Amino acid sequence: MVVALYGAFLYAPTEREMGEVQRIFYFHVGAAWNCFLAFFGVFLGGVGYLITRKRIWDHLAASCVEVGVVFTTIVLTTGPIWARPIWNTWWPWGDPRVMTTMVLWLIYVAYLMLRSSLPEGETKYKYCAVFGIIGFLDVPIVWFSIRWWRTIHPVVITSSGAELELEMIHALIVSVIAMTVLLVTLVMLRMAMSLNFSVAEEMTLNVRHSDRRVEGV
Amino acid sequence: MRYLFLGYAVIWTILFIYLVYLTRSQKQVNDKLRSLSETLQQRD
Lengths: 217, 44
Fold this sequence. Notes:
Radius of gyration of chain B: 19 Å
Helix content of chain A: over 70%
Order of helices and strands of chain B: H
Shape of chain A: elongated
Largest sheet of chain A: 2 strands, antiparallel
Number of strands of chain A: 2
Distance between the termini of chain B: 64 Å
Number of domains of chain B: 1
Largest interface: A-B, 31 and 23 residues
Strand order of the largest sheet of chain A: 1-2
Mean pLDDT of chain B: 88
Largest sheet of chain B: none
Number of strands of chain B: 0
Shape of chain B: rod-shaped
Oligomer: heterodimer
Order of helices and strands of chain A: HHHHHHEEH
Distance between the termini of chain A: 60 Å
Number of helices of chain B: 1
Helix content of chain B: over 70%
Low-confidence stretches of chain A: none
Radius of gyration of chain A: 21 Å
């Protein structure tokens, strides 16, 4: 992360037209790339759960949603901070990239709300898996929105490569890698936590159940 | 420069809030494990 900050602030040259504020771009894109990756994890977890019915897939999906929402929040807050001096507006209503990303955030916030409102059990994990898979459909829409529709959002990565200075590409790659390491670490941490919690809860229930049976005998 | 500072301040604030949330969740897991081990000790 320190190397990524060095790349974004010192190694990469200052952009000619936008100036210093363009340096938000390195972490904004890093966070955007990783929210897509996290939501792919949700999709994978959902499919894995529906096929195998093993709880570990559900833990993966739930952890990925949580961290993915954090990264999408970073994208949706750093974007307007960059947009204010460049586009002269905080929030360009009607811009396809901005609005589809907002919808993506709302979909996964709804996932978290659904998850916390349903009682523990097979039905909850099944609903969440299906919701996560359907929600992932918005990810390609967000990615292609700047290609399908008219937008003021910059298109940096095109079919002919990244339209940036070489040093800027290096800084971008390093910040994407740093954010990916952070994402994987947070997902693993969250997954270990929820696994431990559910195992402890299950064991507590088993102990209480067997105690009641002994009392009954 | 003001917006650049604001941008990075927001990134670190969001990550810090999430880390605080994770620490609280970890505390809940620890409490759950402690109560489980107490229940098991009482049984023995």
